[in-house]
Amino acid sequence: MQLAAHGITHRYGPLAVLENVSLSVGEGEVVAVVGPSGCGKSTLLRILGGLEAPDAGRITAEGAPPAGSLNPITYVFQDFALLPWRSVAGNVRLPLEGRGLDAAERDERVRDALQRTGLTDFAKAWPKQLSGGMKQRVGIARALAVQPAILLMDEPLSALDGQTRELLMDDLVRLHDEGALSTVYVTHNLDEAVRLADRILVLSRRPGTIRAVVDIARPRAERAAGDPMLAAQAKDLWALIRADAEAADRELAP
């Protein structure tokens, strides 16, 4: 399944947020979206997911989702959004309820999602017993349980400490190398972008327009934290963004 945005322009009242932004994500591809604060990254993600309608432009999806997909386009948020009165397994099971699945199929989907995210031994744990990294794993497992074609991820690792972020990045690399899962990944962290993405869309300051599209040629499985080539690419990205980021910060200053 492929997802594309064509000439997306959007405003909030008099505030122009996005202007003529186009992108595509193919099967098995990861597209990261980076740019200064307030450039419309999260707005673009909401429009891609159908949570907002753009003022101009359109979103198209082509191709069939995976067999058994309950929700072809699925979100993973920065906020873990777990229900505290449900166990880990109960939270993962939540989007499967009311879908016409029998109990055996629901249980199998939960088991598979927990196994893929390393949570099998924590199925009966409560959210209050989990670290931030484990809570985010539950959020990812919940998304995987519906067997999506495309994940929309909005700063999924930004609330985590550096060590936990690196471990979860390893998990995301592994999950994408397992199959044809596609992702649009919004982040402020340029190291995350060059580690995970096939292509990086660089937005300008508000209203967000496409400043550059950067391809990462090295296979994802061959990338590692501290790789000098990745560090150089992250530095190049910062050079593209820095002036706009500084201008955006001045704009927000009291």
Automatic annotation (TrEMBL):
Pfam families: ABC_tran. The keyword Signal does not apply. Keywords: ATP-binding, Nucleotide-binding, Transport. InterPro entries: AAA+_ATPase, ABC_transporter-like_ATP-bd, ABC_transporter-like_CS, ABC_transporter_ATP-bind, P-loop_NTPase. GO terms for molecular function: ATP binding; ATP hydrolysis activity. Residues 3-230 form the ABC transporter domain. PROSITE patterns: ABC_TRANSPORTER_1, ABC_TRANSPORTER_2. It comes from the Bacteria. The keyword Magnesium does not apply. PANTHER family: ABC TRANSPORTER ATP-BINDING PROTEIN, TAURINE IMPORT ATP-BINDING PROTEIN-RELATED. Belongs to the ABC transporter superfamily. This is ABC transporter ATP-binding protein. It comes from Alsobacter sp. KACC 23698.
